[in-house]
Write a structure and sequence with these properties.
alpha+beta, single chain, 22 strands
Length: 519
């Protein structure tokens, strides 16, 4: 009978099927010939000791047992060409997984995406990287697949209580992702692979009778007696439906402004803001693995760190081993950073957002903007960075130790940030309280991770789009907006998710609630 085992093995053994089988045979006090197959279910790294171990959960199939690896397949999606229609605003993970769930339940999704399809976005990404031109509808944040498509496709989430994480991962595998995302403790698809998966999801939606409309930006909501009736697009077209999922992502400022202008209740939400720090990957490897050379059997090392500084959390965010820093502005006249890694994480640098928790009281200088105060705080920092960097997509930059010592770095090396850097004292970018917290925080980081606090590390500013600065309140039971019936705020932009997996889960939840109301 097949048997599940939990144990630790060396990186070399964990990476080699034959060595792993020999190790398991010895563990079970059997000969290798008695073991048919060892299938790894879960894998994680334990680097707490100098001798690094791999934590493994495996299932062992013995000789003579039936052995088949279950293949992840798609649900039996219905043809919904003539079914009742539901509008979905936004084709990020929340919107796309909401669409798939609606189809599974027999409803027709009409997905409206302000940006271009996943392939068409590439020209606009080149324009921002090379020519410093920002397309407000097509960029790293806007377009098919949402912000995660070209910024890595990280799938790790702590939000398991929110829903069925494995269901989302298995759907991604069925659409072409590697089976490894079901195994790794911190799964990630990679920017080089995710676009094809996103395209395949869209083609399935269309094949089943749904619609996906690109370059279709919502400019108004049609509301009567506090009930949604449909939307208006930038071309003046009206699309009618009495159920609308609003899944526009954390950077759709025009949607927040539209809601505020129409007196649809929204509220300011705390978020986190800071810089993106880039180190040589070899340096992070040496710190995390306590070795001079990582070798062939360990992946590029990530890190996760958090400190309390003056009553606020300062922590690493969206850490990218073997990755690069990208320009993620969504409007001309602002600078925004983010990071991503290819699937192999084989670049020579590691980067991470290093951000500080903000509080609602920090937004008081922008109180006149009401619920949009946090957004205006965020916007002001991004615009200041743009001015300080010469009104281009170059990014204000400073060596880490120089930042803590309030010294401009005159010899910043070339970093992975393609548009380039401008030497700036970061205190000019951020409010004084935020600068002081980060200066103290990096010093504390250096005490916990020996070697982390170094002038080899280059800070890029700002990392400002960690989450939405606005929450769109909804009823806990129906998931409808607390004021507008039939409007379903969803995902990161509404303040109910924090990444690809949690956004996808939230999209499915909203679709299920709509089906309950309609079917």
């Amino acid at each position: 009978m097949a048997k599940e085992l939990l144990f630790q093995a060396s990186p070399e053994i964990a990476a080699n099927d034959n060595l792993l089988k020999e190790f398991v045979a010895k563990h079970c006090k059997l000969s290798v010939s008695e073991i048919q197959q060892v299938v790894v279910l879960k894998r994680s790294i334990d680097a707490r000791q100098k001798a690094i171990k791999i934590n493994l959960k495996v299932v062992v199939y013995f000789k003579g047992e039936d052995f088949t690896i279950e293949k992840n397949t798609l649900p039996e999606y219905k043809n919904v060409s003539h079914a009742q229609e539901v509008i979905i605003v936004g084709a990020g993970p929340a919107g796309l997984f909401a669409a798939l769930q609606l189809i599974e339940l027999g409803l027709k999704p009409i997905v409206l995406e302000r940006g271009k399809d996943v392939r068409g976005r590439r020209r606009d990404l080149k324009a921002i990287n090379v020519d410093h031109i920002v397309n407000k509808d097509s960029n790293y944040c806007f377009g098919e697949g949402g912000a995660g498509t070209y910024s890595d496709g990280k799938l790790y989430t702590r939000s398991k209580k929110r829903g069925d994480v494995d269901r989302i991962l298995k759907l991604l595998v069925a659409f072409g992702a590697s089976n490894e995302i079901l195994v790794e403790a911190h799964p990630h698809i990679g920017t080089n692979k995710l676009p094809q998966i996103i395209q395949d999801i869209r083609e399935k939606i269309i094949e089943c009778g749904g619609q996906v409309l690109f370059e279709t930006r919502v400019t108004d909501f049609i509301i009567k007696n506090n009930e949604i009736q449909g939307i208006t697009t930038q071309n003046g077209d009206v699309i009618s439906a009495n159920k609308v999922i609003l899944a526009t992502g954390h950077s759709a400022r025009d949607i927040f402004e539209l809601l505020d202008r129409k007196k649809i209740f929204i509220e300011a939400k705390p978020f986190a803001l800071g810089v993106r720090a880039e180190h040589p990957q070899d340096l992070i490897d040496s710190i995390q693995y306590s070795c001079d050379f990582r070798g062939d059997f360990l992946p590029p090392a990530p890190y996760s760190i958090v400190k309390q500084i003056n009553g606020r959390g300062m922590y690493s965010f969206c850490m990218c081993p073997g990755g690069v820093i990208a320009p993620c502005a969504t409007s001309p006249g602002e600078v925004v950073t983010n990071g991503w890694s290819p699937s192999k994480r084989d670049q020579g640098t590691a980067n991470s957002g290093i951000v500080v928790e903000l509080k609602l009281e920090d937004f008081k200088p922008y109180a006149k903007f009401g619920a949009l105060a946090g957004m205006e705080f965020q916007k002001a920092i991004e615009q200041k960075a743009w001015h300080l960097a010469g009104q281009t997509q170059k990014v204000p930059a400073q060596r880490m130790v120089d930042f803590t010592q309030n010294k401009i770095s005159l010899d910043i090396p070339k970093t992975s940030y393609v548009p380039g850097t401008t030497a700036v004292e970061m205190g000019q970018v951020f409010p004084g309280f935020l600068t002081q917290i980060m200066r103290e925080g990096f010093t504390e980081f250096g005490k916990s991770m020996r070697g982390y606090m170094t002038n080899e590390a280059i800070l890029h500013a700002p990392e400002s789009r960690t989450s939405s600065p606005v929450r769109i309140p909804r009823d806990n039971e129906t998931l409808e907006h607390v004021q507008i019936k039939g409007l379903y705020p969803c995902g990161e932009g509404a303040g109910y998710a924090g990444g690809i997996i949690s956004a996808a889960i939230d999209g499915e939840k909203c679709a299920l609630k709509i089906a309950e109301a309609l079917l």
